[in-house]
From TrEMBL:
Gene Ontology CC annotation, any one: endoplasmic reticulum membrane
Membrane topology label: Peripheral membrane protein
Active site: C405 (nucleophile), C408
Protein's UniProt keywords contain Protease: no
Keywords for this protein: Disulfide bond, Electron transport, Endoplasmic reticulum, FAD, Flavoprotein, Glycoprotein, Membrane, Oxidoreductase, Redox-active center, Signal, Transport
Protein family membership: Belongs to the EROs family.
GO biological process: protein folding in endoplasmic reticulum
Any matching Pfam family: ERO1
Naturally occurring in which organism (per UniProt): Glossina austeni
Subcellular location: Endoplasmic reticulum membrane
Signal peptide: 1-27
Protein name as annotated: Ero1-like protein
Cofactor: FAD
Length: 483
């Protein structure tokens, strides 16, 4: 009898211990509480990234351990820290009546002596990245100059031929060449315009400047409403006109467009929350501030309670755009490995090339890349969607001229251009042609090769991807704070 009583007592103790352990480990018996905790810790994202073949945990580990540290050391190199941009273009869509007067909105001037000579004084017949001039060069006047000292003798022999090309013809050839090169662009470039200037990204970091209100909302509302495909929602409320539920009736291309824009928006908001202006000095001549993470602001922008349950969906879209740009870097890796990353500082240029190759080898090892072939089939409808994508992204690049804060405009333009460059890579027929032809296996690529990116495109792409990588890294920090 005593043995039986001892056995039942032992069994009951074991059950109590098991139930207690189950509660601690959030097992099946506490599924309801676990669900509530997940809702409270809304940035504890798990599971599949919709429309992609990998999950959130895989991206978190890959980015935070392998990608982010490499990008952090790469993007301080001179080739990537100086971005040329035109901040004086007028907004083409509405009167620019709300220029930001906050001191932290201003861009700190870049002293010319600090810019590497290789960027502002490129070698003859070469771009600022050290690469030979593209298709436009062969129609330029310089290309028509005789290359040998006895050119006059040849002219006397061929004197009956008029070998000259008129100025008007030169201009037309250049326009044709530029049209050919811009045919695959998803963004409108402004780095070659007269008002364009170099901005040092290291002394003008992306962070909260105080720019907000109607002007900022009007920019994002225009990006979503005027550029998105037809949806049923026409509300003026921010959570309403970027609602997740509207996507159920959209095809893959339309859904991808929205998710890319939403992911970019989420990334920018995370940067502002991670580097929020916590305090500032009152000296206008010497503006100083202390920036750091603002947990309440992060919750306001992304928690289910303040976003109609949409915040977690917006955060998940960050992972979607990350995979899109990651795939673009992997696809163009053979091209990037051939780049010179020329600044004129020989030792650093070599270090940059080595760092790029190391980063690309890691990116190429990622097991579940975004499948760009799922979008834009060769059907008439697929071709139509691709054309609409280009039109919409070019429109977005123009909307960035309507941002009232100069520092916000720099980073808005850079990230939009970086995204446009990624899409150009993913859907470039010229890049596909170069890859199929085996161009990247040749020891030297000829000057006028099939596919080419300009230095501003390369700088924008790597920095834009760096911003997404930083956002995912900061997400882990916010998870720790919220726990």
């Amino acid at each position: 009898m005593k043995r039986k009583m001892w056995f039942y007592s032992y069994l009951s103790n074991i059950l109590v211990i098991c139930l207690y352990a189950t509660q601690l480990s959030s097992g099946y018996f506490t599924a309801y509480e676990a669900q509530e905790n997940d809702k409270n810790c809304f940035c504890e994202l798990r599971g599949s990234i919709n429309d992609c073949s990998c999950d959130v945990d895989t991206v978190d580990h890959f980015n935070n351990i392998k990608i982010y540290p490499r990008l952090k050391s790469l993007l301080v190199k001179n080739y990537f820290r100086f971005y040329k941009v035109n901040l004086n273009r007028k907004c083409p869509f509405w009167p620019q009546d709300s220029k930001c007067a906050i001191r932290f909105c201003q861009v700190e001037n870049c002293e010319e002596q600090n810019i590497p000579k290789g960027l502002i004084e490129p070698t003859k017949h070469h771009h600022s990245n050290g690469e030979p001039l593209g298709a436009a060069y062969k129609y330029a006047k310089e290309a028509q100059e005789p290359a040998c000292s006895d050119a006059d003798d040849f002219n006397s022999i061929l004197g009956f031929l008029d070998t000259s090309i008129s100025d008007q013809a030169h201009k037309e050839f250049e326009l044709w060449a530029k049209h050919d090169e811009a045919e695959e662009d998803f963004c409108i470039m402004d780095d070659n315009q007269e008002d364009a200037q170099y901005v040092d990204l290291l002394i003008n970091p992306e962070r909260y400047t105080g720019y907000k209100g109607d002007s900022a909302h009007r920019v994002w509302k225009s990006i979503y409403l005027e550029n998105c495909f037809d949806t049923q929602n026409h509300s003026n409320s921010l959570p309403d006109y970027i609602a997740h539920l509207d996507l159920r009736n959209l095809c893959l291309e339309q859904r991808a467009f929205y998710r890319i824009i939403s992911g970019l928006h989420s990334s920018i908001n995370i940067h502002l929350c991670a580097k929020y202006l916590l305090s500032e000095s009152k000296d206008f001549l010497d503006p100083q501030g202390i920036w750091g993470p603002n947990i309440d602001e992060f919750k306001r922008r992304f928690s289910p309670e303040t976003t109609n349950d949409e915040g977690p969906h917006w955060l998940r879209n960050l992972y979607f755009i990350y995979l899109v740009e990651l795939r673009a870097l992997a696809k163009a890796a053979p091209y990037f490995k051939k780049e010179e990353y020329y600044t004129g500082i020989v030792e650093e240029d070599e270090e940059t090339k080595m760092a790029i190759k190391d980063l690309l080898s890691v990116i190429e090892s990622f097991p579940s890349h975004f499948d760009e072939h799922a979008l834009f089939s060769s059907s008439r409808e697929g071709i139509k969607f691709k054309r609409e994508f280009k039109e919409k992204f070019r429109n977005i690049s123009q909307i960035m001229d309507c941002v009232g804060c100069d520092k916000c405009k720099v980073w808005g333009k850079l990230q939009t251009q970086g995204l446009g460059t990624a899409l150009k890579i993913l859907y470039s027929e010229k890049l596909n042609q170069a890859t199929v032809s085996g161009l990247w296996q040749k020891p030297n690529i000829e000057g006028d090769h099939i596919f080419r990116l300009t230095r501003p495109e390369i700088v924008a792409l790597f920095n834009a991807f760096g911003r997404l990588s930083n956002s995912i890294f900061e997400m882990e920090n916010f998870r720790k704070y919220l726990r």
